[in-house]
Amino acid sequence: MSLYSTKQRWKIFLLISALLIIGVSMWYSNHIVQKVGDEERQKVVLWAEAIEKRASLVSYTQDLFEELALNEQKKVSLWSEAMRVITNEELDDYTFITRVIQDNTTIPMIVLDEKDQIIFWRNITGTDVKEEQLKVELAEMKTLYEPLKVQIVEGETQYLYYKDSRLFSDLRGVMDDLINSFISETVINSASVPVILTNANRDSVLKAGNVDPKRLADPSGLQALLEDMESMNTPLKVELGGEDVNYIFYEDSLVLRQLQYFPFIQFIVIGLFLFIAYLLFSTFRKAEQNQVWVGLAKETAHQLGTPLSSLMAWVNLLEIKGVDKETISELNKDVGRLETIADRFSKIGSKPDLQQEDVKELLEETVNYLTPRISNKVKIEFIAPDGPVHAMMNRPLFSWVIENLSKNAIDAMKGEGNLTINVTDEVKQVVIDITDSGTGIPSKLHKTIFQPGYTTKKRGWGLGLSLTKRIIENYHVGRIFVKRSEIGKGTTFRILIFR
Predict the structure, then answer these.
(1) Any idea which fold 168-257 has?
(2) What is the CA angle 439-441-443, rounded to 5?
(3) What CATH number labels 353-498?
(4) C-alpha distance across the termini of the chain, in Å
(5) Could you list the mean pLDDT of each consecutive 10-residue stretch along the chain, which spans 499 residues?
């Protein structure tokens, strides 16, 4: 019992140690994940602050751009007013009006009469401006701004078409490049963080990074993705000037999401490692036990061989000297029994020779051997079907199993009670039930009793049931287990021999 208790204590110690290692490892891994997550979110916050500053710069530039555009429109209006004045009114000094007209050296314009004929143009790019070029410029101007009407003398009306100056157009290009650069850098600076830049209505993607294009192409998929991102992090509002607003949606990077599962993966890996280590340990332990079994059995058979030979010689000598035949017969029985025991031990560790045997006949022989050697207060009942019951088995080893189980049952009954051996012949197996009326076995020990070293006796090695299980399951490829047991009422062991 002490050997079993020591093993259990070691198992509990190893289990607690393994759980402690796993717990510390998972805590540390989770700590690393949280630290990485905090650092990544801090980077996103800093990046968002930089975006806001850059957006304010863009907004300021756009305001300046709109002011310049308004100034150009005022210049064109002032130019058209100067033309009206110079053609309709008589002034003493036309110096200022002339300067207004001459100072317009940047804004391209074309003037049409009431019949849509070009009568004047100014600041059109090119050294040799032809009519075709003027028509192209005029078509472009008509798409940009409404014409200004200039009332000329005698009720004639002229129409002034214009477009942005080259300087203003260059500024617009710089502005567009700045916004595009801002948007592109927004995506690039997101590193491995999935990010989406949308319009104010959140239904159009302006830029995206580290996101599956298929989800962006599907409107429903896009909305689901944006909702998922919004549930993780509040979208960043980006004001680009005026009422132009964009939103930046982002979520944790793939690396961080993978790191979040790392503790569980580590737990599985450690658990798998411990499981493999346990299997290896069990295999080595069983191999060591096998070596001990084989060595012990072989040594026992060898040690029995010498006294057996001597006993056989003494029996022959007593027979020659005329000792009564009954005494010689009993001595021969004991010598034969010792030979059987030595033969059993010699077969442990080697591949047994299984032959077709009559299970019913073998059990009857075992019962007949046990009956005169046990208390007369124990009644043995043998139940078997009519006719032979055949199965593949090793006769000496299987007889040893029945003897061990029967002796354990007699010990459990304390030398008084009923022992029943019941044989059932089935199609695919032979079933043998050995039932006693002893003290019974607690259910939690139904498997433990087959472990080497377990015993409830004050004297004994605790190897009987372990050896029994080994013979049935390893040598006969069968099964043995506790079918039923009740405290104070008895126990039934069942043996299955498969055909």
Answers:
(1) Beta-Lactamase (3.30.450)
(2) 145
(3) 3.30.565.10
(4) 37
(5) 56 74 75 74 65 66 72 69 60 48 67 80 72 83 81 72 75 69 57 76 80 81 86 78 74 71 74 80 71 65 70 79 78 77 68 86 89 87 91 88 90 90 92 93 85 62 76 89 92 93
